[in-house]
Amino acid sequence: MMRFTKFLKVEVDVVVARNAFIPDNKSSKEYLENVAIAFMQEEFAKVNGFKENDVIKITSKGRSVNLKVKISDIAHEKGILIPNGIYASYLTSFDGFKRFKAEIELADGEITKPEEIIEKLKG
Amino acid sequence: MSGNTEYYTCAGCSCLCDDIEIDLDGENAKTVKTACRRGSNIFLEYKENRAEPAIEGRKVEFEEAIKKAQELIEKSKSLAIYGMDTIPIEAQKVAIELAEGKEAYIDNSSSYCLGDFVEMVLKKELPTATFDDVKDYAYVIFYWGVDPHNSLPRHMSRYTYYPRGKKRQRGYEEDRYLVVADIRKSHTAMLVAKNARFIQVDDDLKLVDAFIKVIDKQMPEKYADDAVRVIREMQKADFNVIMGGLGLRYGLKGNYEKFKEMINKMNEVAKVYFIPAGCHANMRGFNEVLFEKTGFVNKYSFKDGESSLDYAFFELLKNDKVDTTLIIGSDPVNSLPFEISKKLAKINTIVVDPRKSFTTQIAKVVIPSAISGVEQGGTMIRSDGVRVKVNSLFEREINDVYVLERLKEVVA
Question: Which residues, 6 or more positions from B333, have their beta carbon under 8 angstroms from its beta carbon?
Answer without folding.
Answer: A86, A89, A118, A121, B341, B344, B357, B358, B359, B361, B362
